Amino acid sequence: MSGYEVEHGIQPQPQDQQPRRRPDLTTFFATLDHVDTSGARQPQNTHALPMPRDISAAFRNLANAYEMMRSSDGHVEPSDSSDELLGRLVESLMESAEHPPPEVQGVSDEYIEQLERVPKKKLRENMSCPICGNAFLEDSHPLVVKLPCQGEHAFDLECIQPWIKLNPTCPMDRQQLIKKKTVPPPPPDEEDGEYDEMFG
Amino acid sequence: MAAPLPKRIIKETERLQNEPVPGISALPHDDNARYFDVMVEGPGGSCYEGGVFNLELFLPDDYPMTAPKIRFLTRIYHPNIDRLGRICLDVLKNNWSPALQIRTILLSIQALLGAPNPEDPLNEAVAKQWKENQAEAIKTAREWTALYATAKK
Fold it and tell me: Is ATP-binding one of the keywords UniProt gives this record (chain B) (predicted)?
């Protein structure tokens, strides 16, 4: 660092000495990358689903980062209320890490492709998409799908897709569209047993 | 406001003005059509009767995939509403569905005023009082309604 500054005749910046405002969150975001399969993201490993421990790790990483902010060796004494808030955040994150949410729950792209389409002739004037509120026939090329729930509720494909990618339920009757995925637990192997957060 | 407002929000806003829900109003800000000033009347027969409660409502960018953000601005003594006005209501959290609307959510909030649920508390102190001495809790709720939620003219 000093070499660069000497070569360029730069005075050392005073702010270098100040503590970081925030802890480094790159570890957290890297971990999150492994588990976030929402939206257009594709799972990055061959197993389609993130391991619960990866999700736990994401939560734990963030909790650690908050914990660091909390006990900052403090030029700025954190006020009591923010300290309390961070304490609560850490607590709830660790809680989530203990009981990781059941992975990303939404339906697959294949599932969406296979949804039953409603042909234009079957659409009535008074039928509208419950999500965008627009009449299906307002669109000259309506792309409407029926969910396999009991009410066979119909939606614009474009409207229902983001919802069921994250929540596999019918917005109208909350019926579950897919059964809970039962993933066989990964075969236990030596290294898994010795999993250590330090090297996670 | 760079992004154009989704048609759904425009429609919902129009319908709120043209066919208002009795005892509820929601007006968008001129400079931010996703931010609403909300007014909810305390339901008749409840300890909030006669009160007019102000709330703020914000539609996030991903609305209606996520629930609106709603908060009481008027102070209220209620086991499911905390000091900051945050509301503990299932349809605002896990039970949100994109088929719900601003008007249905506001009706749910009005119903929550009529039926406090101390078993699922957000405000521990109030919920404790509600369970241990309901008469006293209801009396306090009435007093707060008169004190904070009565229109000043």
Answer: yes
